[in-house]
Amino acid sequence: MRNVVVLILLLSCIVAKGQDSTFIVNLIEIEGNKITKNYIIEKEITFHQGNVVSLNDFNEKALRSQQNLINTSLFNFVFIEPTYDGQLINIKIKVKERWYTWPQPILVDEDRNTFDWLQYRNFDRFSYGLYLNQYNFRGRQETIQLKLKFGYSQEIGLLYKIPYLVKTKNHGLNLSFLSVRRHEIYYKSVNDKIVYHKDANEIMREEFNTYAEYVFRHKLYQQHFFRLQYDFVKVADTIVSANENPNYLLNGQNQSSYLTLRYLSRVDKKDSKNYPLKGHDLEFNADKYGLDFSKNKINTMLFSVLAEKFGKIKGSFYYGLGLKARAYAHDKVPFYIAKGFGFNNDFVRSYEPNMISGTNFVVFKSNVKWQLYKPRVYKIKHLPFEKFNTFHHAFYLNLFADAGYIKDRVYTASNALSNTLLIGYGVGLDFVTYYDKVLRIEFSANRKGQSGIYLSFIAPI
Fold it and tell me: Domain range holding 291?
């Protein structure tokens, strides 16, 4: 019966395509997955047994499938090898799994970014401890992370990610709780610089949050996240006094607890999760902070959108474009929630020394990259561990220009960079290697005449 089906598919290919080379995907074999379940790999590939494809279509699908599997962060290398038997394609997928159990020591600087640490060199802001990470738990792409951190930041946390609650369905669940205590915190900005307060004998801020998040993978490249989160935060009276920042938690309150509902939609078709050269992604996010509408309670909504596009110009030249916009429903937003420019990836390059307070913002980033050194694979001959003895690396020279604007009606009197157009530009060198590592060294300048050399460990766009 199977031979009859194959014959019918072959005849339909000939009629539909004429002289075009068309094939039927006949057999798919998977090798090298000693831990990972087959269905986890099968969910990422863009061709399936019985598909009718042209040669060009198959080559594109094979490349996209390889990129999808690498982006799971489960494998160091993926090889897709087709063999042709007349009008049939037999496919062998070979994977090299990563090391999944990481008892990872923590020794980290807790400054806002690398520039802050290089400027202040305050070793009191180091934290130490241990992450216990179990990736690909049960071979099902699940993650368990236990965090024990001491020193500048005292944290205890547990995270459990289950991408597939049911083997054949795209339903997932993320569960988390985190408890944090700090003797020193930043609590305002003056002259567009971050201001800290420290007391070795008193806890400046204690926090607790926990959430449950349902994840639905609608299509191969589209996900929806629905989260319910509870937060409790308490700060020292000094922080919220009239002379410091009574807007830290609104109206001079020193503690608050609130629920947050979050919806996030993401379409991600980048070729690489950590350092993309081709593809695009789009995110939309809506957060409802506070479900208690009592007076003086946290109660606002946040909307944000992120769009990024990457592509090849010609030869070894590539471009990257990114746009992010954020808007709150009103201006009465606690400083604790409404972080401005200078955190995570929300900044205009060359303004790394600044913390620019505000609520609503828009930022545009652009890059032109030249691939100085193509990705190459090396194997360390005398290292017997397969998960570590083979690695890749590449270098990119990039020119960039960013622009941004952030709106602020609360802290304007002591800060000059909000409510103005920010422009930064410069040149950088990027180093990309295995286990998703990126190192960027950039020289940048801005319209204020400021310039500097900055170091970072994530891609700018």
Answer: 101-359
For 316, the 3-state DSSP assignment is: coil
Are 7 and 125 within one domain? Answer: no
Query: At 65, which CATH number?
Result: 3.10.20.310
pTM of the prediction?
0.84
Please give the residue that has the higher pLDDT: either 125 or 85. Answer: 85
Spatial distance between the Cα atoms of 93 and 82, rounded to a whole number of angstroms: 9
Element (H, E) at 117: helix 114-120
Q: What is the pLDDT of residues 291-308, one digit of tens each?
A: 876 666 889 999 999 999
Same domain, 34 and 70: yes
Of 307, 282, 281, 408, residue with least CA distance to 356: 408
pLDDT (mean) for 93-97: 94
Q: Tokens standing for 234? A: 């308490």
Please name the helix (run of DSSP H) or strand (run of DSSP E) that holds residue 65, with its range, or none. Answer: helix 55-71
Q: Tell me how far apart the alpha carbons of residues 220 and 68 are, in angstroms, rounded to a whole number.
A: 9
Q: Are 404 and 361 in contact (CB under 8 A)?
A: yes
CB 13 within 8 A of CB 87: yes
Rounded Cα gap, residues 351 and 349, in angstroms: 5
- Check whether residue 203 and residue 308 sit in a common domain: yes
Output Rg (C-alpha) for the chain, integer angstroms: 25
Give the tokens for residue 30: 């998977």
Q: Is 134 in the same domain as 74?
A: no
